[in-house]
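User: structure tokens for this one?
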Amino acid sequence: MGIRVAVAGASGYAGGELLRLLAGHPEFDLVTATAHSQAGQPLDAVHPQLVGLEMTFAETVPDVLAEADLVFLALPHGQSAALAAQLPAGVRIVDLGADHRLADASAWADYYGGPHAGAWTYGLPELPGQRTRIAAATRVANTGCYAATIILALAPLIAAGAAAPDDVVVVAASGTSGAGRAAKTHLLASEVMGDLSPYKVGAHQHVPEIKQASGATGLSFTPVLAPMPRGILATVTARPTGTVDPRAVLARAYADDPFVHVLPEGRWPHTAATLGGNSCHLQATVDVDSGRLIVVAALDNLGKGAAGQAVQNANLMFGLPETTGLSPLGVTP
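Assistant:
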């Protein structure tokens, strides 16, 4: 028996992707998968891609989860904190929700509402010094999917003094799985296919997280719903502070990172190339007219934006190579 792992909220899209990754992990042994309305159902009745993974969803209660060495919380925002507080201190937790991402209680109140549960170690290993912090942590707050995409594109430019932190503009498109699995009229195929639509314009909940982790102080973010199941493509622009090659800055920052790839000159990211992998693809240039820095980033919102990122963090927490059980390779077409 290896490291015993439980997944709470395993009936959702991110939970299902976690189950898939854990099924092939050489050190993590899945012992429990919990759900609410799907409790009592076989896993493959909810996730047909997991046929052969013989397990039944249990109820999401602390006593069941407390038997694991590691718990992934793949619950809706606002539901993780209360459950985590009931788990023993010796159980390590990676929270895929937003409950413990923000250090600023006022930002939580503005964008989420309700009581602020406090900040945990932020789970983006590629930030400077963050691998060491994650490795020492027993509680880690996984990134948001948009946040991971934009922070990876932006943070090195601000850290290097190449981009003005007070003038950042982002337009990013995401697949429908980013909105979760609950039935919603605006996510019906008839509503989504053949259409692009902005949402939460000027008030998306990932804005304070992006600012907190990237160093940005002024951010305009427009998210767009795209007619595809999964994937994010973000175009990030910033005002330069001088003459700079943004691609060179990114290449230096991620030279040793296994999951962030700055593409060769002239090759631009696209979402299909990242599907199923735990990778982020980047490309950058300078706009010839405005002079603004432009970075385009793509990742799988259920992979590097959620479940893959969570496994990467858990690997670090247990002293494993962060690549264990993960691949940067996509599955297109």
